[in-house]
Amino acid sequence: MAAENSSYVTEFILAGLTDQPGLRIPLFFLFLGFYVVTVVGNLGLIMLIGLNSHLHIPMYFFLLNLSFIDFSYSTTLTPKMLVGFVSKKNTISYAGCMTQFFFFCFFVFSESYILSAMAYDRYVAICKPLLYTVTMSPQVCLLLLWGVYGMGVFGAVAHMGNLMFMTFCSDNLINHYMCDIIPLLELSCNNSYVHLLVVFIVVTIGIGVPIVTIFISYGFILSSIFHISSTEGRSKAFSTCSSHIIVVSLFFGSGAFMYLKPPSILPLDQGKVSSIFYTAVVPMFNPLIYSLRNKDVKIALKKTLSRKIFS
């Protein structure tokens, strides 16, 4: 679609995950299965935490919000991806593309900071157990949550502001299955060093700051664990953090691989595969990891199911 300015572009074409027709139907059912598990798992975990009063503590307060974020940003992206597998030409309006990108940025930034808030919660629980109820009071938890979603708004607005100064020319084919900043930068005909620098700075704030917070928290946690004399105590402390460490590794590993490398080092086709991990796989695995590796969640699930059966 020929256009001299982004204001005249009425739609984009999403290239999708693959251009091989034989793979589209199998991939449709694969990602439909991922999405169903994501929705059931995250909404189920939200309901489970809400229905069981013994889970109304800071750790599960943040876990509930993590499940909400995972469900939300998976819903922002996956339905449009599924449409792309079964349609000959997967188009998205300019306004729809910008809306999808805004909410994608909001929820990804929010996830980064909710994971760092959860790391801080584990730090207080293990390193300062006697002060836990005071340090992680409801007021502090709400303040942390406001910070989490505040950074989500910052990330979305910063990226959108960067996009507003870009000009899109004749090519409107986005080499991706979603509207993301890297493929949109490739489409821009006034793509400059300044735009790339803004992207790098914003992504560093979205990924770098939470990673540093998490590393510092776990540095103190490991130091405290090694000072625990009993093997059982050390094992219990490690088990409370293991689920969070797995989730952090999956999310930040795939995100950093996609965004903190120059496009010349990581071609977009490989980037699309990498982005699947944090847009489809991570939201699906998070509730499974926290359910299967968490004793309190498994007990709550058994109690909830037994109440339903007897009622």
Walk me through the structure:
The model is unreliable at 1-7 (pLDDT under 50). With 311 residues, this protein is mostly helical. It starts with 10 loop residues before the first strand and ends with a helix. It has helices at 21-51, 58-86, 94-127, 132-135, 138-164, 181-187, 193-226, 231-259, 268-292, 295-310; strands spanning 11-14, 91-93, 173-174. Strands 2-1-3 form a three-stranded mixed sheet.
Output the strand order for the largest sheet.
Answer: 2-1-3
Shape: globular
Outline the biggest β-sheet.
Answer: 3 strands, mixed
Q: What's the β-strand tally?
A: 3
Head-to-tail CA distance between termini:
60 Å
Instruction: Give helix and strand order, one letter per element, not per position.
Output: EHHEHHHEHHHHH
- Uncertain regions: pLDDT < 50 for 5+ in a row? 1-7
Radius of gyration equals 21 Å
Q: Taking all residues together, what is the mean pLDDT? A: 84
